[in-house]
């Protein structure tokens, strides 16, 4: 495939992702005419119309949608091939992409990474934080090399190292709940009260119901720190990891609602990576260090 055709596909994907020629041009660091010419040339070359340009944002035609899925896959594989070739040429990866799930205890998780990257100064750590199913989507899409997260659905597609357990408990601020706080509280008792939940960062959100009470009013936040603060202020109740609120519970800034009917949970957390991709020497050394720390 010639370079011009590769650019055409990159422009096509950028247009779909960003919705306009100007936004696609900015993303690719190209000019607006270059992107427009690339798409026109691609459509002429294929003999089909890929984009409906009649609206404010460009939209895929039926033919464009069919080609787009294959284009995304091709570009992802091309990027992986280019990255692996660069790794082989240099002998060492220049970057490792790591995703940390929102429930991970940060001192322990970042401490493991600090010990490793402190001795691997030639490799940059690209650290991302994702929530709910976001880490697994990043891993499945090839957007990262490694994740730290809980494992909802074990699969032979992944290899995983058990690292630590995270305990979640339902909590509220003193005075938030009008009734008596006891282990007899039921979901029906909590239904009139605002429940705070974490927003899934995935582009394809999980359908899993994480402690959500049917019929309850909810508010969603992007991270656990915002959720903790909102609950501390008496605006809602919700489940939080114990490592984040240990002092709040001890000093009665938060009250545990856990009981016979409102359950907490203990989620084992893992380092996980895909089996079906080539891992470079730096990634392999990090994996070995994580295995040693887990034993």
Automatic annotation (TrEMBL):
> HTH lysR-type domain location, by residue?
8-61
- Keyword terms: DNA-binding, Transcription, Transcription regulation
The record's SUPFAM superfamilies line, in alphabetical order, gives: Periplasmic binding protein-like II (SSF53850), Winged helix' DNA-binding domain (SSF46785)
Q: Which InterPro entries match?
A: LysR_HTH_N, LysR_subst-bd, WH-like_DNA-bd_sf, WH_DNA-bd_sf
Its domain of life reads: Bacteria
Q: Which GO terms describe its molecular function?
A: DNA-binding transcription factor activity; transcription cis-regulatory region binding
State whether keyword Phosphoprotein applies. no
Which PANTHER family does its entry note?
Answer: HTH-TYPE TRANSCRIPTIONAL REGULATOR (PTHR30126), TRANSCRIPTIONAL REGULATOR-RELATED (PTHR30126:SF88)
Q: Which family does it belong to?
A: Belongs to the LysR transcriptional regulatory family.
Name this protein carries in UniProt? LysR family transcriptional regulator
């Amino acid at each position: 495939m010639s370079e011009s055709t590769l650019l055409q596909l990159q422009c096509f994907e950028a247009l779909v992702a960003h919705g306009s020629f100007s936004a696609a041009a900015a993303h690719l660091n190209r000019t607006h005419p270059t992107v427009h010419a690339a798409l026109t040339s691609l459509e002429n070359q294929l003999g089909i119309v890929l984009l409906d340009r009649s609206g404010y944002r460009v939209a895929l035609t039926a033919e464009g949608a069919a080609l787009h899925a294959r284009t995304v896959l091709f570009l992802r594989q091309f990027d992986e091939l280019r990255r692996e070739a660069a790794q082989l040429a240099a002998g060492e990866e220049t970057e490792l992409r790591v995703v940390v799930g929102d429930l991970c205890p940060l001192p322990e998780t970042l401490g493991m990474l600090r010990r490793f990257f402190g001795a691997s100064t030639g490799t940059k750590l690209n650290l991302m934080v994702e929530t709910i199913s976001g880490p697994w989507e990043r891993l499945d899409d090839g957007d990262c090399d490694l994740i730290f997260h809980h494992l909802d659905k074990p699969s032979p597609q992944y290899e995983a190292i058990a690292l630590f357990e995270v305990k979640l408990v339902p909590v509220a601020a003193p005075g938030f709940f009008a009734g008596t706080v006891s282990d007899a509280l039921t979901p029906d008792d909590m239904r009139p009260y605002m429940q705070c939940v974490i927003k899934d960062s995935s582009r394809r959100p999980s359908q899993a119901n994480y402690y959500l009470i049917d019929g309850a009013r909810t508010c969603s936040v992007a991270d656990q720190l915002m959720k903790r603060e909102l609950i501390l202020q008496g605006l809602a109740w919700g489940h939080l990891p114990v490592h984040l609120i240990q002092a709040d519970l001890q000093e009665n800034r938060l009250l545990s609602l856990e009981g016979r009917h409102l359950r907490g949970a203990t989620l084992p957390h893992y380092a996980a990576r895909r089996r079906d991709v080539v891992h470079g020497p730096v990634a392999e050394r990090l994996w070995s260090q994580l295995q040693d720390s887990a034993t």
